[in-house]
Amino acid sequence: MLIKRGRRMNQDPLFSSAGELANFVVTSNLIDYDLAKNFEFQRGQTAFPCSVQPMVYHRTPNRTIVVFIPSPDSTQYPLPEGGDLVPSPEFKFLCTKECPSVSINRAALTLFLSLHGHLSGLKAQLTDREGQLIITGHSLGGSVASLFTLYLLDSMDKKRKCRPICITFGSPLIGNFGLQHSQWNSFFLHLVSNKDPVPGLFLPSSQSQTTVYKPFGTYLFCSELGCACFDNPDLILKLLTVISSEVAGGLLQVVDYGEILRNLKNKAIWKGPQLAGERFADPFSAGIIMKLETIGFDQTKLLQHNIDIRRMEAEARSLTKKTKASDIKELNDIKKYMALLEWYKKKSKDAKKGYYDCFKSGEFRRDIAVGEFMGHLTTYWEDMVAEAQWKPQTEGASFRTGWLFSGTTYRRMVEPLDIAAFYRDGGTDYINNGRSQHYKLLQQWYEEDVKPPSRDQLDSRKEKVSDLLTEDSCFWAYVEEAILSCESLKNANSSPEQKESSWDNLVMFGEYVMEQIENYVVSPEIFLEESSFMKWWGEYEDYINTNRNFYSSRLVNFMKRRSYKQYGRRAI
């Protein structure tokens, strides 16, 4: 799905909604009695040499569980170094243009780095393993589990069908805004008891105060009455703040998540698949108010803490509907504008001029109307490029791959028209003075992705060259500069140095054009009688015949022999 700048991309997530993830985890065997026993095992341990120890369980050939078990002391006093956030170069793959650095809780990051040697080996062991992979942890162990999951996801093949699911229990927030915009949000489920203050440990006691900490992933809030899941970060932040401020006993209170898991599983089984699905349905269909009441947030408490659920729900619903409708209409419009440009290109070719020169001259009404098509297309692709820059580095690369072909076609079709307008208005040196950044990035990403053509691909180009869009979208800018160089050579006021520089530019231009021709990457339209290229050739040939009669080059020979008349019909 394509989107505009400022909106989060509709990705291909692991689960389509918070409810789907929560329902899948609770009603499946991902969290079962064996995992609950791990919490009992944790409570029976003495202090570890390190605050967290990773343990790997291969329950079946098709399922691996990695449990980050915290030391008993760290469950009651997690992250004793405090709640400050520090930039993390280790997670720079999450950086975006809008959020150029991702900050992680200092203590959680320190602990993760202290285990880095062991975790690097574990990552290598798990990266190619088939089947389900569950990464989990309680309290401080959940913080490290989240960081390890991000670390693992970044190294995994994007085509891998089975990705890890991270499930944490009563874990504090670990990062800032940068974590929220990862493509991997749908791989994280955080269970929080309404009696556990630890998840909101670093949040201010008053909602009037701001915090740099931001939740990411899906949150499953649990109480004695049941549970409710949410993925709206603003609502999650408010709920965590209220729970943390209201729970009596502070950090000394121990929450038995093992018992919570068993109760959840029994309730889900007792309700049956259909009702279990309803319990974890999307907030729009199940009713967000009813969900909040299930975890102890009745209307009185919501008003007391100034949580306006109806407004939040209405805003989310409105944004979703508008986004979907807008995306569909916008995509259809883009296809329409590209089709109109194709029609314009054909009409211009019939006029023996080519669409570049037709647009530059602006003789007909259709030439003027093309400017409107260009404007819509350019706005769209500027937004797309900005969106790719805004996303985390690895996610942005994956995002670009999905539409790079369309973006390249757009660049090759539309940039020549921008060049035409630039030189029509008296501009010079388009490459340095007029080229838009989004064209530069589209070209850069294409060149990073494309491979040199094989012999078979070159042969295939010969067959299709008559319908080709010139691959170098800046071709016409080089033609215009070559025309200016010819004018400089003929200008009596040009200095010897200027003339020598102009001649050198023309020699290089000739080599460039011949390379394009021999590789079949330039459209035959450049050889139309009224094209700017043929205008340049006329001036260039006249100069050679008058001033450099013995000069010869591959392009000069090609043009003088009129070999271009066969270009696109058979091999040269």
Low-pLDDT segments: 1-12, 268-286
Helix vs. strand class: alpha/beta
Number of strands: 9
Helical content class: 55-70%
Nearest-integer average pLDDT: 77
Helix tally equals 23
Strand ordering within the main sheet: 1-2-5-6-7-8-9
- Termini separation: 43 Å
- The percentage of residues in β strands lies in 5-15%
Shape: elongated
Radius of gyration based on Cα positions = 31 Å
Largest sheet: 7 strands, mixed
Q: In words, what does this structure look like?
A:
By secondary structure, the protein is an alpha/beta fold. Helices cover 55% and strands 9% of the residues. The protein is built from 23 helices and nine strands. Strands 1-2-5-6-7-8-9 form a seven-stranded mixed beta sheet, sandwiched between helices. Helix 20 packs parallel to helix 22. The longest helix is centred in the middle third of the chain and has 42 residues, at 309-350. The two termini are 43 Å apart.
Question: Can you describe this structure in just a few lines?
Answer:
With 572 residues, this protein is α/β, with parallel strands linked by helices. It contains 23 helices and nine strands.
Describe the SSE topology:
Elements (H helix, E strand, L loop, with lengths): L17 H10 L5 H11 L8 E9 L2 E8 L1 H5 L8 E3 L15 E3 H9 L1 H12 L4 E7 L1 H16 L9 E5 L7 H4 L7 E6 L24 E5 L4 E4 L2 H14 L10 H23 L3 H4 L1 H7 L4 H6 L4 H42 L4 H7 L3 H26 L2 H32 L5 H4 L3 H13 L5 H10 L10 H16 L5 H23 L13 H16 L6 H7 L12
Parallel strand pairs: 2-5, 5-6, 6-7, 7-8
Antiparallel strand pairs: 1-2, 3-4, 8-9
